[in-house]
Specification:
single chain; about 300 residues; 2 domains; four-stranded antiparallel sheet; 5 helices; binds zinc ion
Amino acid sequence: MSARVLLLLTNKPKRKQDCSLIKSGVLSVIYSVMLFNASALANALGAKSKLELAAAEVAKQPALKGKLTQGALLRGKLPAGSSVWLNGKEINILASGDFVLGFGRDAALAQELAWQLPGKETRNQQSLALVKREYNIQRIEGVASKYVSPPKDVLARIHEDNVQIASARATSSKHSAFLSDFILPAKGTISGVYGSQRVFNGQAKRPHFGLDIAGPVGTDIVAPVDGVVTLAHSDMYYSGGTLIIDHGLGVSSTFIHLSSIDVKRGDAVRQGQKIAEMGATGRVTGPHLDWRINWFKERLDPALVVDVVDIE
Ligand SMILES: [Zn+2]
């Protein structure tokens, strides 16, 4: 279990309470919230001026839960009715004020979060500094050559697979399942981690973006949290049996190399419900589940979301 550090955000420079708790290049952070009731605070201090009230209101910061590093999913909370922007782009927020952010494998280390409270005209801003990750190189031999250099006659099929996957991952529902604690979707041995630079049969390929869990063909796979099935395909070229589940606001799980799928598009699933079985379909060298988490197109690290696996 990764060490955790509590940081209290203020408008002053961030104060790290214990910098020695940096583990494996990843700083595990839970941002805490400072939600002042401006008028109560002003009354308590005997302050009446608009200036002092405004200063207190600026201190209303979003609570962010997650690890401030590349590959991380962060869950945030603002007062209901607030708006939020990441790097100048407005992002979706639930009516409750809950929202989510995701940072890709090679995300810029400097991120700008902005928010506007309901009924206010000023936009507040907070810089987020991500901790840089180090990724290993994974050399894999014995991959069938048709998966390392796909023949021309399968390129249209690969393109069609990619279109379907992109469409499923573009879903932005108002589901709030992403707020729940995720569980691992299968029992087995962790055989591959997020971010590794992949070399297949000596050829450098794209990095690995999933968490691989190896086990026998037929091992149960369960939903890590609630969601709605947005894609169920029995035979994609690279990923074989492929299932995508929407958890809300662009957060999705993708499960690949499945031997069978128990659900269909549109089905609502509950956390812990059996959804598929582990297989060895598509580009694999043995049976395993490759579980991925996305925030729209951003590919995130499932190990950071479940927080049960030491990474690196
Ligand atoms: Zn994998």
